[in-house]
Design goal:
Layout lengths: L7 E3 L17 H26 L9 H10 L2 H14 L3 H18 L3 H4 L2 H16 L14 E3 L5 H9 L6
Parallel strand pairs: 1-2
Helix pairs in contact: 1-2, 1-6, 2-6, 3-4, 4-6
Length: 171
């Protein structure tokens, strides 16, 4: 707590409205390919974020990225997403939101500490995927001027790490 002075950096997030529309059975492979490409881009971004902090002295800072990369490849999530895409015949973004909401609810209900806390990671990585699918930018520390004051409605864990790497003056 305190105050900071510097140029303002407004962290804009995707709108909360995710497009939802029907697709044909013929479009399922195309939608799945869009998702796979988004996962590849998300993994690339997460690996880049991890590399940026790997030289830091704080142990475990990169663990969040390992967890999120693992969530991109989680067989249960991928199975549920593909099943929903095939049965609902809705676009991949709408299916992703529905599956993530279901998984987050399941995570919150778990009493196991090892699972319970990861719903934040799942939400974070799904928002990253939705931004990629929408063609929107993701918070990258190299786009923020050192000494800036970040103005944000909410911050995801990966945003906080990116902001720390950018050496901002305050949030």
């Amino acid at each position: 707590f305190g105050h900071a002075v510097g140029p303002a950096f407004i962290l804009k997030k995707q709108s909360s409205t995710v497009p939802e529309f029907k697709i044909s059975e013929k479009q399922i492979p195309q939608e799945w390919l869009r998702f796979e490409r988004a996962c590849g881009e998300a993994e690339r971004q997460l690996m880049e974020c991890k590399a940026q902090i790997s030289g830091g002295t704080e142990v475990g800072r990169g663990e969040i990225f390992d967890i999120q990369i693992a969530l991109l490849k989680d067989s249960y999530i991928l199975h549920e997403l593909k099943r929903m895409l095939q049965h609902s015949l809705k676009n991949i973004e709408a299916c992703l939101v529905a599956v993530v909401d279901k998984c987050v609810q399941q995570f919150r209900e778990k009493e196991l500490l090892s699972v319970h806390g990861h719903y934040w990671d799942l939400q974070d990585v799904s928002k990253r995927l939705l931004r990629i699918l929408a063609g929107e930018s993701v918070c990258e520390s190299n786009t923020i001027t050192k000494g800036s004051v970040c103005i944000a409605k909410d911050l995801e864990p990966s945003d906080v790490i990116a902001l720390k790497n950018a050496e901002i003056a305050g949030i």
